[in-house]
Amino acid sequence: MSTYQKVILKARPRGEIVPDEVFEVIEELIPTEDDVPEGSVLIKADFLSLDPTLRGQISGVDSYVKAVEIGAVMRGWGLATVVVSRNSNYEKGDSVFGVYGFSEYAIHNTEGLRKVIVPPGINAVDFCGVLGMTGLTAYMGLFELAGGVNPGQKVVVSGAAGATGSVVGQIAKLKGAYVIGIAGSDEKCNVLTNELGFDVALNYKLPTFEEDFKNLTKEGFDIYWDNVGGKILDLALLQASNYATFVMCGAISAYNSVGPPPGISNYFHIVTKRLILKGLIVRDYSHLYEKALNDLTSWVLSGKIKSKNTVVSGRMKDAPNALASIFKGVNTGKLVLRIEH
């Protein structure tokens, strides 16, 4: 009989993810129809979303979700196909999006699972990116936390060449803002300005970055989207306009830290400039997903925003290495594993 692969969390990472130390790949028999309980479905993974937030979810510390337990299938989400259905709301062949873990096949009770109909002109992989949780995160952060973007405002995006940042900048530009992106290579900066429409992009690894950033923001800025934390966030606090809003989405510079990351030296500017810093968890806005997805789909179909994906292909055994690669900056836009069966 045929087998499938799944990935188990076997140890907590300390510092960078070392895949062979942290994860274990297991092969098991593919479940049969008889294995699927009434009300559930058997799904086959097509595209696995790979996200920096997964690093925090294997740290052993509960946050807005419980940490993945040792011995459990690694948490993950993406696009899949129903191959067996014992639920009247789903049929064999349906495309679905949901949490199914690092597993090529999974029996799913359908909680949180939603059907996906891929319209003409849309790539299925985009439901892991611009039309998935990263696109929704960008949308909710700008329109709900930041209160919208107005023409002429200045928006700064750190981690701008990543999955969420690349969408944030495009939406802000669509709404008439002047958009500054920060990324980790000249190649990524060229993508931001030449492909995605950012007004300017800065490579934070260059020795002139701090001076260049200060020159570009000498008159301040209105919205700062933080995907990175650390020294770049500290610099942004120094340069922000009075009453600027900071959307706190991530802190990838510290995800692999051993021990507490360095503190912020420009903290008191939050007081003197009356800054607003708000944490963003996209699931808080699930009641707005339908409208957001309608807008995002319309913008993609009209070419007003572009999807940007880095797609790698392989079996589920390749997922741990792909996840670890995010923290080495290998991806531009959304990183997705296309599952080969």
From TrEMBL:
Pfam families for the chain: ADH_N_2, ADH_zinc_N
Domain called Enoyl reductase (ER): residue spans: 24-337
Keyword Transport attributed: no
Top-rank taxon, per record: Eukaryota
InterPro entries named among the record's database cross-references: ADH-like_C, ADH_N_2, ER, GroES-like_sf, MDR_fam, NAD(P)-bd_dom_sf
GO MF entry, a single one: oxidoreductase activity, acting on the CH-CH group of donors, NAD or NADP as acceptor
Alphabetical keyword list: Oxidoreductase
Keyword DNA damage tagged: no
Protein name per its UniProtKB record: NADP-dependent leukotriene B4 12-hydroxydehydrogenase
Organism whose genome encodes this protein: Nadsonia fulvescens var. elongata DSM 6958
Lineage, top ranks: Eukaryota, Fungi, Dikarya, Ascomycota, Saccharomycotina
